[in-house]
Amino acid sequence: MSLNWLAMDARLADIARKIDHGDRLDADDGALLFDTPDLWTLGELANRVRRAKHGDAAYYNVNQHLNYSNVCLLSCRFCEFQRKPGQAGAYEFSIEQIAQKGRDAQARGATEMHIVGGLHPKLSFDYYLEMLRTLKTEAPKLHLKAFTAVEIVHLARVSKQALRKDFAGGVKVVLEALRDAGLDSLPGGGAEVFDDRVHDEAWRGKIRSDEWLTVHRVAHEVGLFTNATMLYGHIETRENRVQHLLKLRDEQDHALQNELPGRFQCVIPLPFFPDGSALQHLPGPSGLENLRTLAVARLMLDNIEHVKAFWIMQTLPMAQVMLDWGADDVDGTVVWYDITKVGGAGTHQEVTIDTMRRTIREAGYRPVERDTLYRPVVRDGAKWSVHHASDTTADRVYILK
Ligand code: SF4
User: Fold this and answer.
1) Which of 105, 226, 221, 109 is nearest to 172 (CA)?
2) Cα–ligand 1 centroid distance for 300 (angstroms)
3) What atom in ligand 1 is closest to the CA of residue 117?
4) Which of 147, 237, 250, 281 could be a cystine partner for 151, CB 3.0 to 4.6 Å?
5) pTM over 0.85
6) Distance 190 CA to ligand 1 centre (A)
7) What are 70-114's pLDDT values in tens digits?
8) Domains and CATH numbers, the chain
């Protein structure tokens, strides 16, 4: 690997050699990557790994978000989304409202519905099963990527699984029921940062890291692909971030070594936004810290294929830069995202496919529309299909356009 050796932090030379030889980085390497003032070499290292995996491809999808309710039993300190029952602004969608959103999404050519909500105290397990069944009937082309691990555990409690006696067994019953009703994959939220101190100070009551990881392990066992987030830039330390990434890497090793039918597809570092949360006195991470964290994630997670620059939180201009810092995916065209926004309450963010593709090209990359499972999509307006390698006509469409 050629690097500008004169300008680089000499401590990074060993890490560069490890990456060059395909050797795994350890916790000390992760700490050094967070400590080095030589951000540019860090970015170059991450970009080398990203280009080795994906060349000049930069993935996006055409998706729709559905936040079925903001009513939540918990009060995570970073969350500006949740409302208590009866509080101004609290809502929950009926099954018919959800069906209409599915029909609308399919009609405009979305390939995926991303579904998450609060931990509602009153909605029955049947509501969630009905939601999935109805969407599969009304909008069968949509991939249903739904429910964080936190929601899955909530649903296990709602459906009266004996989690204290057999946590994994109760989660399995629920995941299989949801899968059979139409659940296709898990989005990966709710991981926050895998550390008990941070958990107890910032989101006590939410599941801890061991439970989050168990939910994903069971999901992989029952054939569901999942993603994994990391919420950073609040009261955690950089060491906490390294440990978080290592735990994800270990879990992915487990899935791969045991040839489970599911695995992590993508990691999504999420910067903390203080505004409106109970932690709004904190500054939140800087742009450079966002780049650094993304690059470290790319370098530490050698067994997870994709790293996402979630543009709706990072902004599209920042996502363009992030494609040079380890990201290969910028998420979707996104309609109606309510959980955390760059622009504050009431800003429903969306870009057109043309804008997305132009943005990626402008950054020097080749836009590739993907479905949720990262298969290239061939599109003609709202009509789309998954690309098959033998289809050279389709090849021209998605590669050269
Ligand atoms: S982050 Fe999720 S679980 Fe926590 S308060 Fe917000 S909606 Fe509820």
Assistant:
1) 221
2) 28
3) 7
4) 147
5) yes
6) 8
7) 999 998 887 888 999 999 999 999 999 999 999 999 999 999 999
8) 58-400 (3.20.20.70)
